[in-house]
Write a structure and sequence with these properties.
The chain is an alpha/beta fold and about 325 residues long. The chain contains 13 helices and 12 strands. It has a 7-stranded mixed sheet, sandwiched between helices. Strands 2-1-3-4-5 form a 5-stranded parallel sheet, sandwiched between helices. Helix 6 packs across helix 7. The protein starts with 6 loop residues before the first helix and ends with a strand.
């Protein structure tokens, strides 16, 4: 079973670098202190998110940015709430940061509503062109750039993987947020693949908990069902536990867009390596702090994807995980 960085270790990582440089700090009192704002979509203390932002802080340290010596980082936790995104984005912009880090497309939008001049580096963001946050991937042309999660075509891979671990699935409920472009784009990509796998799709919205529960309960009354969640995890953050619980209650094999769901009991996930994205984001923040403009830094695609499987959940569903999938898995929870 994988282990995750805890809150104490995270804080120690951020502060430890500063403690290791007392002489340098005294010798460089005149060095300019830069400010970075970080707004993430997760609930405060979420272990996976702590792992991600620790990777970001470590990436900065490797580039010479030491917390307390030449950089200050302000963190805010959005808990999947759009109102919080807007409030915290405005709060961070009011602090006059040199650059901000955004963990979701809706957070990029909130920052751009608050300011069209503060540089934004985004991570785990789907379809930044379609969302209107950049003009093009090669030349963003706005105050935002960063690291996209994946192209919509990858959504078809979720259906293929679900069929591999649960070949008996003939009907799939596709859970997505209709208000998020990634939700509709992901559904369209799955619809393209579904006929070749003899699967019938049923779209399910995630506007509120009641809608989710009614839709999944109704869907589960039919045989040979499964679930796919598309879109950014931030758009369904408040309903993670509910969706995983409903999948277990109705014995529905499911695949998710983040290993966060697998850790809490979901069957499987396939997603970009978010730790890698946060570490790479530090390089863009570094370049912006040194004078480059987001408008000129191309949006980058993921270089690594991760497959996570929960064998305990597979066993509870009566599924035998193929050796091929186990060999490909980056994370196996037993």
């Amino acid at each position: 079973m994988a282990s995750y960085i805890g809150r104490r270790k995270f804080l120690a990582t951020l502060g430890g670098a500063a403690a290791a440089w007392p002489l340098a700090a005294r010798a460089q009192k005149s060095e300019q202190m830069r400010r970075i704002g970080v707004l993430v979509s997760a609930v405060e203390g979420d272990p996976k998110q702590l792992e991600y932002i620790t990777a970001f802080a470590q990436g900065l340290a490797e580039l010479g940015w030491t917390v307390g010596r030449n950089v200050r980082i302000e963190y805010r936790w959005g808990a999947g709430d759009l109102d919080r995104f807007r409030r915290y984005a405005a709060e961070l912009v009011a602090l006059s940061p040199d650059v901000v880090l955004a963990s979701a497309g809706s957070i990029v939008g909130a920052f751009q509503q608050a300011s069209r001049t503060v540089p934004i580096v985004f991570v785990t963001t789907i379809d930044p062109v379609g969302g209107g946050w950049v003009e093009s991937l090669s030349r963003p042309g706005t105050n935002a750039t960063g690291f996209a999660s994946y192209e919509f075509s990858m959504s078809g891979k979720w259906l293929e993987l679900l069929k591999e671990i649960a070949p008996g699935v003939k009907r799939v409920a596709v859970i997505r947020d209709p208000s998020v472009p990634a939700g509709s784009g992901g559904l369209a990509a799955i619809q393209t693949v579904a006929p070749s796998l003899s699967v019938e799709l049923t779209p399910v919205g995630v506007r509120d908990a009641g809608e989710i529960e009614r839709a999944i309960t109704t869907f589960a009354r039919g045989p040979n069902g499964g679930l796919i969640m598309v879109g950014p995890p931030s758009s369904v953050q408040r309903h993670n536990d509910l969706i995983v619980a409903l999948a277990a209650r109705h014995r529905l094999p499911a695949i998710y867009p983040s290993s966060i769901f697998v850790i809490t009991g979901g069957l499987m996930s396939y997603a970009p390596d978010r730790v890698d994205q946060y570490r790479r984001a530090a390089s863009y923040v570094d370049r912006i702090l040194k004078g480059e403009k987001p408008a000129d830094l191309p949006v980058q695609a993921p270089t690594k994807y991760e497959l996570a499987i929960n064998l305990k959940t597979a066993k509870a569903l009566g599924l035998t995980t193929p050796d091929k999938l186990l060999a490909l898995a980056d994370e196996v929870i037993e």
